[in-house]
Specification:
Helix content is 15%, strand content 38%. The chain is built from 7 helices and 23 strands. A 16-stranded antiparallel barrel has the order 1-3-4-6-7-8-9-10-11-15-16-19-20-21-22-23. Strand 22 and strand 23 form a beta hairpin. Helix 2 packs across helix 3 and helix 2 crosses helix 4.
Length: 592
């Protein structure tokens, strides 16, 4: 609009004259019509336009009155001049007679362009303010927005034929147990470590609603796909007899932001911390309360902090359900409390460094040996005093031990029933340092990521010296020993508290337009007890800890908000019997 006005030579006019010029351009000369009573209906477009500007707040009534008065005065002056022509005036070369009023010629294409721009601006304002169609849409719709994503993937798992076939699936043992580990032929679940799984079609889908409830409060709800309610992935495998797929409540949160530098979020939320996939799965959401603070020093240097408290597990009020009176279990509620501080330095428009130091304190995650438990007295009652200390969700890698101190039946001289759960052998208090460096090389974006974690609560001898008489000893993470009578034996115990990750990305980190792309290469190393295995990324070594290896990926945008991805993960065990696994993923993703 401003460019068109400049073409007409009005760019330097004061506001009132500018409005009058626009009115004259759109409505033509209105001389005597402008002198009409302002309150009377008018058939003149200019007067109606000025009145509409007043109604919409673009002009004050005083300015409008001034414009009308000015136009009336100029029209009167023009009429007087034409009524008293100068007999001595020469006739202009263009045929103008004395007393004629000259009007600057406006080309038709310029008038068309001005009309179209004004039309678009008025339509846009009408839509945003709903005055073109009063009450056509309810006001609350302006406060709600929708977003989501859909991913479809072809995935293959390639196991090494040299892998050991004797990996007990402790996660399934806890989920379906207790399992009698003392039986002559115990039905102990084991992991698949040798049979490939090829071309599995899998998908993810999320749909989120975000509502602006006021100047300081926002709320959101998101549903997601998934085969089960595990916390680290919303991936669902297609097939299954073409049955319908599950939807889960993935997020539900309320955020209060009283000012520009602080906020408080409560409910089930996205990970509020600066983190990579070293400790937490990128799909992991947090239940609890988190506060975030941004404290900039200047345009180039800023600091931030995040604190939070998150419940991991609550003991069931009636646990165990088949007990009575004083047999009910004590409170074993498990929490994570965390704090992170960080800073970001902006060296120029293309170069930025971010560093963050975090401490994640998981309380009561370590299992406890039960009191002597005689499950043979009443077979219908199958519980012991510390069953609730077993982790509710786990994957693989953490050191575990048998939770129950089973009392041998009276008169037994050999094998006897030992229905067992497993618990974690260590506590997890994690110190974590994360860094991210963004810069450009020849105009190409480059991002370097580095992450380091150490479990400060790890002390190897704790797993062996905690209980007398050999109770509470670890049952996994032993090196492979010799095979005796067809059964493998254990070698030395090996674990560790350290993990680290490095990763480089060349290109647009998150391509959202056609022809945007990136290539990423990284390496991950995670000892068995560096982090909780139940919270890690399922794409690397199918989740868990005690894994190391490299990963490479590439993304390419094929349309707006749609891209193709290819990823390859090569991982093997850090300690223990051989367990190598390669994963290939080909994926199409879209976000809206």
């Amino acid at each position: 609009m401003k460019s068109m006005i400049a073409k007409l030579g009005f760019a330097r006019l004061p506001r009132r004259a500018l409005c009058l010029a626009v009115g004259l351009t759109l409505g033509g000369a209105c001389g005597g019509v402008l002198a009409q009573d302002a309150a009377a209906p008018s058939t003149n477009a200019t007067i109606n336009l000025i009145r509409l500007m007043v109604k919409k707040g673009l002009l004050t009534q005083a300015d409008a009155d001034g414009l009308l008065a000015q136009a009336n005065a100029e029209a009167t002056q023009a009429r007087n001049a034409s009524a008293t022509p100068n007999p001595g005036a020469a006739v202009a070369g263009d045929g103008a007679q004395p007393g004629d009023v000259r009007v600057t010629y406006v080309p038709q294409n310029v008038r068309n362009e001005i009309r179209e721009q004004v039309k678009q601006e008025v339509i846009a304002q009408a839509k945003s303010e709903h005055w073109a169609e009063p009450n056509a849409l309810p006001e609350w719709l302006d406060r709600i927005s929708w977003s989501g994503d859909v991913k479809v993937r072809d995935e293959s798992w390639y196991y090494s034929r040299n892998n050991s076939p004797y990996f007990i699936d402790y996660a399934t043992l806890n989920r379906t147990g207790p399992v009698d580990v003392g039986a002559a032929n115990p039905q102990i679940p084991v992991l698949n470590t040798q049979q490939n799984r090829l071309n599995m079609l899998r998908m993810q889908a999320h749909l989120a609603l975000t509502a602006k409830l006021g100047d300081t409060v926002t709320a959101g709800v998101r549903i997601g796909s998934g085969n089960d309610n595990n916390p680290v992935s919303t991936t669902a495998t297609l097939g299954g007899g073409l049955d319908k797929k599950n939807l889960w409540l993935d997020r539900a949160w309320i955020k209060w932001q009283p000012n520009s530098w602080s906020s408080l979020t409560a409910g089930r939320m996205a990970n509020p911390f600066m983190a990579t996939e070293l400790i937490y799965s990128p799909e992991l959401n947090f239940d609890g309360i988190a506060g975030h603070f941004d404290l900039p020093f200047n345009d180039d240097l800023g600091t931030f902090a995040t604190v939070g408290a998150f419940p991991i597990e609550f003991t069931s009020p009636d646990s165990p359900t088949d007990a009575d009176g004083t047999q009910k279990n004590r409170d074993y509620d498990k929490w994570m409390t965390a704090a992170q501080i960080g800073a970001s330095w902006k060296f120029d428009e293309d170069t930025q460094l971010k560093l963050a130091l975090a401490y994640y304190y998981f309380s009561r995650m370590r299992g406890s040996l039960s009191a002597p438990c005689d499950v043979d007295i009443n077979p219908s009652i199958n519980f012991c005093s510390t069953d609730d200390t077993a982790p509710q969700y786990m994957q693989k890698g953490n050191t575990v031990f048998l939770l129950r101190d089973i009392v041998p039946p009276v008169g037994s001289s050999g094998a006897y029933p030992q229905p067992q759960f497993v618990g974690l052998a260590y506590n997890y208090h994690l110190a974590n340092l994360t860094g991210q460096f963004d810069f450009k090389v020849g105009g190409m974006p480059v991002r370097l990521l580095a992450d380091y974690v150490r479990n400060m609560a790890y002390h190897e001898r704790d797993a062996f010296d905690r209980y007398p008489n050999g109770l509470g000893q670890p049952v996994n993470n032993y090196q492979a020993g010799p095979v005796v009578n067809g059964v493998p034996t254990n070698g030395p115990y090996k674990s560790g508290p350290v993990g680290w990750l490095v990763r480089g990305i060349v290109g647009t980190p998150n391509p959202m337009a056609a022809n945007e792309w990136n290539v990423s290469l990284g390496y991950k190393y995670l000892q068995p007890d560096a982090v909780l295995d139940g919270l890690t990324d399922q794409n690397f070594h199918l989740g868990g800890t005690n894994a190391k290896g490299f990963f490479i990926s590439t993304d390419y945008g094929i349309a707006q908000r749609t891209w193709l991805s290819a990823r390859y993960f090569n991982a093997r065990e850090v300690f223990g019997p051989p367990f190598s696994l390669d994963i290939l993923q080909l994926e199409m993703s879209t976000k809206f």
